[in-house]
Specification:
By secondary structure, this protein is α/β, with parallel strands linked by helices. The chain is 34% helix and 20% strand.
């Protein structure tokens, strides 16, 4: 886990914003945010974003509802993780938001006035695992609040 608190920025007193994209690392970030929420009583605001996939500068044709698909991934991830956490009221502390645009931009906008921003890291282990992903690196550098980057369990580590 990496914690960053940008100097010169005021800290919010409200919610914990967490980036969720359905990946195992974002599930770990949501678990961490829920555990922090249980300690502080702060609500969790789960955020995902989507962009039209572009291929050679042309938007794909078809009847795909990208916003609905992203909302479904967010809802499934929240339901899964909240179900693992148990019946301590975690579900009541989680709101969900889907935004169109780049994930780093969406997270930074949602983090305005937040107490904390939590993101997962898709590190690869070893030397490469020391590096942050592009979204987590961007939000650590530009967030208006403290940031926690949660590194998921390594593939070769047995569960506790």
């Amino acid at each position: 886990m990496t914690i960053s608190s940008p100097s010169g920025h005021a800290h919010g007193t409200g919610r914990i914003v967490v980036g969720v994209d359905g990946s195992p690392s974002s599930e770990e970030a949501l678990r961490w945010a829920l555990a922090q929420s249980a300690l502080t009583g702060q609500p969790v605001h789960a955020v995902t974003s989507w962009e039209f996939p572009l291929d050679y500068g042309v938007a794909p044709l078809g009847d795909v509802d990208w916003a609905a698909a992203s909302a479904a991934v967010l809802a499934e991830t929240v339901q899964k993780v909240v179900g693992e956490v148990g019946p301590d009221g975690a579900a009541r502390r989680v709101t969900q938001h889907v935004d169109q645009g780049h994930p780093a931009r969406a997270l930074l906008e949602e983090a305005a006035g937040a107490a904390l921003l939590v993101v997962g890291s898709r590190g690869h282990g070893g030397f490469a695992g020391l590096l942050l992903g592009s979204v987590s690196q961007h939000v650590v550098a530009h967030a208006p609040c403290p940031v926690v980057v949660v590194h998921g369990p390594r593939a070769d580590t047995p569960p506790a």
